[in-house]
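Thought: the user wants the 3D structure for the chain below. I'll pass the sequence to the structure tool as-is, report back what it returns, then summarize two notable features.
Action: structure_tool
Action Input:
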Amino acid sequence: MTKRYSPQEMLARLVGFETVTGQPNTALMDFVRDYLQAHGVTVHLLPGPEGDRSNLFATIGDADRAGHILSGHVDVVPTGEPEWRGNPFHLREEEDRLIARGACDMKGFVAAVLSAVPDLVSMQLGSPIHIALSYDEEAGCRGVPHMIAALPSLCATPAGCIVGEPTGLVPVLAHKGKAALRLMARGRSGHSSRPDLGANAIHALLPALQAAAAQARALRQGPQDERFAPPWSSMQIGTLSGGQAVNIIPDWAEAEIEARAIAGIEPRDLLAPVIAAADETVKVEWLSSYPALALDAGHPLVALMTGISGNDPLGAVSFGTEAGLFQTAGIPSIVCGPGDIARAHRPEEYLTRGELRAASDMVLALGRNLAA
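Observation:
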């Protein structure tokens, strides 16, 4: 008999795979592939250029018809926080809480989708449901662009994409975009008493860092979108490191800077003044970039999600997702998943049983809607 999993059983399986961002995800993706194929679902494993990580794209129904994508990432952030009270990769139950790394962000949504597969298969869908699982979302949506590029060879252009990041199952119509870069300077070390004989790498970064701080201040007076908090685009210097000791001329220095853009603004453009100010000895490396999301409130996808989630839509959130990338590829997209983003990236991350059950109900409601 083909194996069925309850949503909680599926979540327990998924969080047991230690798919930390930047690490291999082969074991998890093989498990999902085998499970889906056992239920007669067409599955494509799509290896990324890294060689040890893959995206997965699966279709229930006729791939030649316009369907809907249920999208989630399977990577999770590291678990170094000392506040964990148990193994972060073993699902632990405390009262109504299901605790594990990724339970909320966002293997809970993936578990709801996968556990619904046997029922979705039996519904004889009039238009297909696609399952899209990506890698390295937490590193700046690095995996999903490879999958999106392959979609024209895998299915008809989808009618919509539902990205299941934690929103309390409230459909979200817009989010900010983001771009991040690294500045790297190499100098020449020596005794600090003879700066004339060395080259201070930290000093080389200062013009670009000053430009970043000035841009952060200027953006507060720039274009505003009141749907977001804060309503302006933003920038910050997130990390800064370099040197060995106070009496040694630093021969290296690095900084990472991010910009978050309201809808209608290209995130990379916000960092242009930083790049322009960089000393000629400074190397600039792009770390990540994804566009903002903006779905019109009158789009049919909004009405569909309002109906199957039971919640009225929310105009915008300030965190980012892969939805903007699907939208840029011509696929209308919305964000709606179980849990609260405030629990993500924190020790004792959890999803409640009720939230997981509600997500499963939403997925099944989508199937019934497409089977009608």
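Final Answer: Structure generated. Residues 202 and 253 are 5 Å apart (CA to CA). The two ends are 28 Å apart (CA to CA).
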